[in-house]
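REQUEST FORM: STRUCTURE PREDICTION
Request ID: SP-0412
Submitted by: Lab K.M.
Chain count: 1
Length (residues): 338
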Amino acid sequence: MASMNLVPVSEAVTPPRFYIKSGEKDGLISRKSYIRTHTHPNFIIRTKKLRSTLNRAHNHRSISNSIRNDLDLETGVIPRLAGKIAIITGAAQNIGKSTAKLFAKHGAKVIIADIQDDLGQSVCEEIGLETASYVHCDVTVESDVENVINFAITKYGKLDIMINNAAIVGDVKLSILENDKSDFDRVIDVNLAGVFLGMKHAARAMIPAGCGSIISIGSVSSAIGGVSPHAYTSSKHAILGLMKSVAAELGKHGIRVNCVSPYLIPPSVPAEITDLHPDIFVNIYSNIKGVSLKEEDVAQAALFLGSDDSKYISGHNLAVDGGFTTINPGFGLFAPAK
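STATUS: Completed
RESULT:
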C-alpha cells in the first residue's frame, strides 16, 4: 500500500487529528472497517461456519466421486454384491427368479439351480449369459447339489452366497386324517433335506475361504401354525432349527447362516388354501394398510443378508411378513367360521 501524506492540523488539539488527502480517505475507511469487522466475534463465528461448510462440501464432493466411481451407469445402482458368486435353488420362477435378477443387477454372478430346464435357461438369457448360468439340480439328490457347488468352484473359483429357495407345498389336505405319509415324506425331502444338502455342500466350499453367507427361504409357517398344510408347516419350522444349529457351527469359519421368512405371495398361493382370489386373500390379512408383499421384497431381504451390510448378522430369521406373525390377526386355516 502506498504511504499516505498526513498533514497535522494543530499541535494544540488533543488528541491530534490528521487531514487525509482526497483519494486516500476511502482506502483508510475501508481498512478500518475491515479491521473492525474481521475482529468482531460474530464475524469470527461466521467465518468458522463458512470454513466448516466448505470442508463439508469438499468431503461431499469426495464422497460423491467415490459413489460415482462405484455407480453402475447402465443400471443406476451402486452394486452391493460386486464380485460375489451366488447359487440360488428354485430360481426358474417366482422368488428365486426375482432374487437372481436382483443379485445380477448388484454385480453378482448367479447360478440358477432348478429342475425346470427350459424356464431356467430362459431366466439366464433374460439376465444375460455372461452373468447367469443354469445347472440342472434336484435338491433331493445329493450328487446334483454337489455338482452345482462344484460348477461354481470350477467356473469362478469360489462360492460366496448359497440361497436354499427350492420348495413345494404338497397336497393341500387340511385334515391330518386325510394326509398321506408319502406326500409328507416328499415335502420334507424337498423343503428340509434339500436345505440340509445345500448347507452341507455350500459349507464345503466356504470353509476354506473363511467366509460366506447361507440363506434359506422359510415362511410365516416357520413361526406359526394354521396357515398352511401340516407337512409344509413342519418343514418350514424345521428349517429354522437347522439354520440355528448350522449357524452355531459355522460361525468360527466366518460363515453366516440366516433365514428369510415371507408372507404368502400371489399367485403362488394355492387356491385350496385361500378359497378366495389370491389378491383378495392377501389384502384381507395384510397388516400394513395399502401395502402387499411382492417377490422383489423378499429378494431385497436376501440381498441384505447376502451383502456385507449384514456382516454381523447370523442365526437370524428375517420375517418379511408385514408384522403378520407378530400381530396375530386371528387368521388360520382352522379358525372357527364366523
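NOTES: Residues 7-20 have pLDDT under 50 and may be disordered.
Reviewed by: T.R.
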